Amino acid sequence: MLKLVVLVSGGGTNLQAIIDGIDNGIITNTEIKAVISNNPNAYALERAKKHGIPAECISPKKFPDRNRFNEALLERLQEYAPDLIVLAGCMVVIPEMMVKAFPNQIINIHPALIPSFCGTGFYGLHVHEAVLARGVKVTGATVHFVDEGTDTGPIILQKAVDIQQDDTPRSLQRRVMEEAEWIIMPKAIDLIANGKVTVTDGKVRIFP
Fold first, then answer.
1. pLDDT tens-digit profile of 53-69?
2. Cis link prior to 186 (omega < 30° from 0)?
3. Is 128 among the residues known to form the active site?
4. Which of 7, 22, 101, 201 is most buried as measured by Cβ atoms within 10 A of its Cβ?
5. How does residue 194 score in pLDDT terms, banded at 50, 70 and 90?
6. How crowded is the C-beta side of 142, counted as CA atoms within 13 Å?
7. What is the distance between the alpha carbons of residues 184 and 48, in angstroms, rounded to a whole number?
8. Which of 110, 126, 128, 144 is catalytic?
9. Which residues neighbour 127 within 8 Å (Cβ) at sequence distance 6 or greater?
């Protein structure tokens, strides 16, 4: 049984997709041990509690500096001893100490087709604003392992989404979530839970 800890910052729509995926059997051999947020007002915490999942906030505002916050978050994660840490709309920059403690055990969902529209400053609605400003015809989402860089870890799954001429950043954000993020994040977790994902030389191989 794959033990997950999910890190969140906001509404928790990707968390809900994971919860639903477990409930309806899209994600197998998996249980969510805890949900942790850096934001005490994150609705994702309420989503977790409604499903009987332990939920807590570890806020950087409660610590004298970022390093102390990172240490506290890492310590809590190690107490849960997860097999996989899922960043589901998590706005916290994952420190190197956490990546080293959980090598190829942290995954993230990014709302674009990496390596396009990713890296520093590309998060949330900013991604979709940049996509529309550039005038590309296809965008999408990417699930990837987290390494020491920003959106540079090995890619697990990607799914494309066509851009419509009347799209706004918010309408595109919603469609990317519905047509890509909520599909490939549960699928990636299920693949990992069933031992079908390996990483070699910085590249992911998926076994049938």
1. 999 999 999 999 999 99
2. no
3. no
4. 7
5. very high
6. 21
7. 20
8. 110
9. 110, 111, 112, 117, 118
